[in-house]
C-alpha cells in the first residue's frame, strides 16, 4: 500500500474540514476524535500531531470560520479610496454573503449539541471582528461622520447585543417582532456612534 | 411509618429548592431526576406529579429565580410617587443586592455544566424583566427625561448586550478592560434612550 504524504497545511485543513462536517451534521457533543480520524482516513498519530484534543480542534475550527470573514473585513478597512459609510455597507454585504453560504450551518448552530461551538463562535467574533470594525469607526470619527469615544468597547457592545438578541436563534421572534427589533437596533447604532439619523437605514 | 402530607405549594417549592442546590453544586448536566427525588425524600410519583421531566424542572427553576427580581421591579415601577430616574436607580440597587446574595450561583453559572441553565436564565431576563423596565422608560418619555421609540425592543437590546458582554463571565476582562466596557455601556444607554449626558453615571 502506498502511503500518501501531504504537506502539513493541506493535511491540517483536511482534518479541520472533516471535523467541521461532523460538527454540522451530528453536533459537537456527539462527535468523537475517532470519528474525525476515520472520516479523514489518517492514523491516530497524524491527528494528534496537529491537534491535542477535541477541544483544540473546536477552537481551531471556530477560528477558521471567523478568519475568512475577518480577512475580507481587513481588506475593506485598509482600502484608502473608500469613504467610511461605503466600508460599513461593504462589510455588511460581505457578512450577508457569508451567512447565505453558511445557511446550513446556521441551522445546526442552533441545535443544543452545538451550544458550546456557537458560544465560542460568538466570542471569536467579538474578539476578532470588533477591532477591525473599530478601525473603520475611528476613520469615521476623523471624517466627523461618527462621534464616539471608547470605540472598540462600543462596537463590542453593539455586536454582543445583535448576536444575542437577533442572530442567536434562541429567541423565536415572529417576523413583525424581528422587524421592530431591527428598527430599534438601527436607532441604537446610529445614536451610539453619533451618526446622522437614518444613516444606517440600509440595515 | 407516618406519611408526611404537605400542601402542594410547599412541596413544589421544596422540590425546586433541592433541584436548584444540585444544579448549583454539581451542574445541571450532572443532575438526575433520581438525585433530586432522593434529596427531597419523596416518592417518584410525587415528583412527577409536579414536573414531567428534568427539562421542565429546569424551566420552572429558572423562572422562580427571575420572578423574585421581577416582582420587586414591578413594585418599584408601580410606585407613582417616584420620579423616573429614582426608579431606575432603585432597580439597579435591587439587582446588585440580588447578585451579591447569589454570588455562589454566579460562579456556578459560568461552569460548562450549567451552560444551558445560564442561557435559559438570560432568555427569561430578556422576556420577563425587559417589559417592566420598558414601562419605566415609557414614564421617562412622558416626563421628557427620555426620548425613545420602540421602547421594549431597545431595552431588550441593551439588556442583551450587557448580559452577553459584561455579565456572562465568558469573557475574562481585566479590571481596566471591564471599566472601559462599563463606560461604553453608560454612553450607549444614555444615547439610546435619549437621556441627558451623564444621567447614567451612577452605573
Automatic annotation (TrEMBL), chains A, B:
This is Probable transcriptional regulator. Residues 32-51 bind DNA. Keywords: DNA-binding. GO terms for molecular function: DNA binding. The keyword Transcription regulation does not apply. Residues 9-69 form the HTH tetR-type domain. It comes from the Bacteria.
